[in-house]
Amino acid sequence: MWIFLQQKLFQKVKKETEIKRPILKNAARAFLVGGLICLLGQAILEILKLYLEKEMANAVMVTIMVFLGALLTCLGVYDKIGQFAGCGTIIPITGFANSMASAAIESKSEGVFLGIILNMFKLAGSVIVVGVLSAFVFGTLRYFIGI
Amino acid sequence: MIFLKAFLVGGLICALAQFIMDKFKLVPIYITSLFVFLGAALDLFNAYDKLIEFSGAGASLPISSFGHSILHSALEKADEVGYIGILTGVFDLSAAGIAAAIIFAFFGALIFRPKG
To answer: Please, which residues bridge with residue A92 across strands?
Structure first.
């Protein structure tokens, strides 16, 4: 009985002290920063389209954005923007570069091979695994049923 | 006009992700995985292609396009060489992003020191 009461009290205190997430404000911030990143990508794409074919321009644009994401991560700027923007920096492809670069740079002290190379996909690996799995499932569906 | 569309669609995808993350109190890694899955699911009936056509980078920069492009290139290859194409073509379109991320992350980690 005593333990049960204590648990109840603990849960009550936990509920009261838990920080309420300002959902709308966070979503607005994510909207702003995520939108701006996509706007920058579109601007780069429009410039590249003047010189390259459409598919090639897209690949170069993605490469440039990944480069920017990795560079800003290395400079420590990306995480600061991320604290403000949340998913606005996580969802764009720059966030993918960020997760790889930060995993690599944080494990640098363990050495080049055991640190950087081994840990690079620690965070980003899930994206690739989920991508391939869903591509396999949906691809099989589409290939045989043809939706 | 395409700039406005890119801003709006890209922003809305990020805002939706943020909303789901806050509402269900998830860790970022679930959100990225969920959006990759959603991107692949939206490739059914070519919905995501239409979104990319409509908004350019607004749909092709968020991680959901990774799921879409991975499925898209797998199916393209499968049309060419048969069912095994699902495996051989899976990274055709997204290879640039992954390779670039590996290269920049590696050299970045070599050059820079961890911050904070």
So the answer is: B62
